[in-house]
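As the next step, I wrote out a protein sequence along with its fold in token form, included below for the reader:
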Amino acid sequence: MSLISNHSGLFPEAGTDEAGRGCLAGPVIAAAVILPPDFHHPMLNDSKQVYKKHREQLRPIIENAAISWQVAFCSPEEIDKINILNASILAMHRALEKLKETPRHILVDGNRFKTFKNIPHTTIVKGDSRFVSIAAASILAKTHRDELMERLHLKFPAYGWDKNVGYPTEKHREAIASLGTTPHHRKTFALLKSQISLFP
């Protein structure tokens, strides 16, 4: 399905999405984006469908073209406390809260959301491959999170975060098994395939 720019006809309309939900380490990061109604870019799609170099090219294009954009996060500690679904939604709310314009409608990737400031919202499964504002939010969330994990990699190089950005790859799990966890790991997640707890 082709990306389209507006779902409700209401303006301004914000798209929101998150990155890092399935990771073992690092925060979950969300972005909220309000784009001009006529915004279009041929490379823009769900961030998972866009090459890394193209995501990095799209980020400044989106940030410069957007009427307003923001990113926000929930820490691993918050994820462990309230669970990843609630943390993902909270990160989206925080990003929406920071927008310089209040949207009249919110487009949300996925099927779960909690009402934000009584603003009407629509949840769309695979919305990041259908709507421009959600796709833009997915690009910003992904690139900002990757950048953060690459910085954290410099402090904890054994876990391979420059490549896996916190996802449960074999190398990542092997490093956890041999070295233990860092302050950036999510303690409530299944960090090892064996499911053996590393925590007292």
User: Anything to note?
Assistant: Strands lie at 13-19, 28-34, 68-74, 105-109, 121-124. The mean pLDDT is 91. The longest helix spans residues 132-155. Helices lie at 52-65, 76-82, 84-98, 132-155, 161-164, 170-179.
